[in-house]
Amino acid sequence: MSVTSPSAPQSTWTKADIKASRKANRKLHRKEYIWAGAFMAAPVIGWLAFLLFPLGFSVYASLTNWNGLGNMTFIGFDNYVLLVQDPYFWKALWNTVFYMIGIPIGLALSLGLALALARKIPGRTFFRTVYYIPVISSLAAIAILWQWAYNGDFGLVNQFLSIFGIDGPNWLMDSTWSKPALIIMAIWKGLGYSTILYLAAVQSVPRSLYEAAALDGAGAWRRFRTITMPMVRPVTFFLVVTNIIAGSMIFTEINIMTPTGGPEWSTASLVWYIWNKAFRNLQMGYATSMALVLGILVLIVTVIQFRMNKRNEFSIE
Amino acid sequence: MSLTTNTAAAASTAAQLTETENRAPRLGRRNPFAGMSGSKENKALNWTLFGILSIGAVFMAAPLVWMLSTSLKTKEAVYSLPPQWIPDPFVWENYIRVFDDTFVLSGIKNSLIVAGTVTIIGTVFSSLAAFALAKLRLPGKNAIFIALLSGMMVPFPTLMIPQFVMFSNIGWVDTLLPLIVPVILGNVIMIFFLRQYLHNVPDGLVEAAKIDGASYLRIFWTIIVPLIRPAIAAQFILWFMAVWNDYLAPIIYLNTPEKQTLQVVIANMNVQYATQRDYPLIMTASVISVLPILIVFLIFQRQIIESVALTGSKI
Predict the structure, then answer these.
(1) Domains, chain A, ranges and CATH?
(2) Is there a contact between B164 and A5 if contact means CB atoms under 8 Å apart?
(3) Three-state SS at A73
């Protein structure tokens, strides 16, 4: 985001001059200010009412014992103490983090796809469309479909594996395979999206860079490492950040494919647990404290990533 | 989120490199090994990649083809071994049954109401805000913009509980309003893109219209909207898809079956009809939930993909 600051007044001005000029400006542009304010009003009101207020309310609610209807009893940090001691919270957090393994795999696959699609391959528009269709399909429908594809007895996945003589597990009913099953599905669904972003980045790399590198005797791998990778880095960064934020909110497929949190609670994600606590067990205070912890974790991870991205920028220079 | 500077820096280095390259004698053209350097592509490699991509495409399409084919099967044919890819017999009746026996029709209606009102009115609010943020004077408008953007960092699950309590206090639970009201006021992503898009529009255009005495609404409608129409259209479609496919918010608020949106309806059908082993019906409903979006996507494919591709380079 590039925010342009108003250009500074000339240095010969005194502070009084600046003040006077600002005042004159304000008078001159009063009408424009009013209209600008009016045009921005809706999103600003939305931001205040449905973001800032709920957020502030969350902080208070997380310090209470509350079922969402009756009285809120202030209990200090008890919810947070409970949370640290709650094995289900840790399990859900672990599962949520585990799902992120899919992110680097998905990115590597989609970069490969993008490199292939950037070449003059017959039917590339067709391929692009086919790979993109899962992205636009509704996650609920996709989850239903895959839940069934993972069925141990007659599911599509095991039917396919049996061609190669592999006796597939009962994916979603097996505590070791339930998480990988969800990861594979998530990669399948998200592949097209990252591919499109990478494709745009790969196509914007000037051809001359590759030609020059080839003249200097750089091999294909070397060109990939030293030209392609750095040139698509902003996209990689964007995808990692957005995928981690989206991954931390994983809920739909968990709730549809494993409505009870999976065998031995192996698929329950943090948001799924929060949702259960809040809307099934009506432990709103406790759920709010978990939701806040989730928000803070996402924030920390995002900030770290921006920091790392900045540091890398300097090291390139 | 200063990715723009990053990309800009990359682009400028690239531009510099291109320049120096241009000044050097253009050996590449006359080089007999030009084919190896990438200016002319290796045919064999391309066909190999074609093969790999085709296999990949089969994996991408197979589950969806299976969904479509199952929606046209009898209950028994679903379990046949080896799996039937072409239904035998074709049962079109599933598509009649799904409207008669389930809440799919009311689901479509509710999803259309939510996604339609949110995106149509929300687009007006978002583009007005983007216009003001990009082209009008207001002290502190950049701070406002940053505040709006930072809101994207707060995950919805963190806000869902207090929002639910707010709406239940005013009796909006089990209505579509909690799905509409908080989102109709503007979409930050859309505001961001339109604002970015408007930076390429010269300020002079707006200033000239102001001198001619045009009102701000008129400037917006006759100058700004025609200029950013393609960006608005693409963002509108992406937003519509996102709202149409949403599941978490609807499942929190909607309890009565005839008030639920399509995604919740099919998810509930999955639970209800799985016990009856009526997979064809579930798949029929799934096809119906995917189809409208798929058609829109196929029609506006180029614009949608271009707009998505911009996401990576703009933020």
Answers:
(1) 15-83 (no CATH), 89-316 (1.10.3720.10)
(2) no
(3) strand
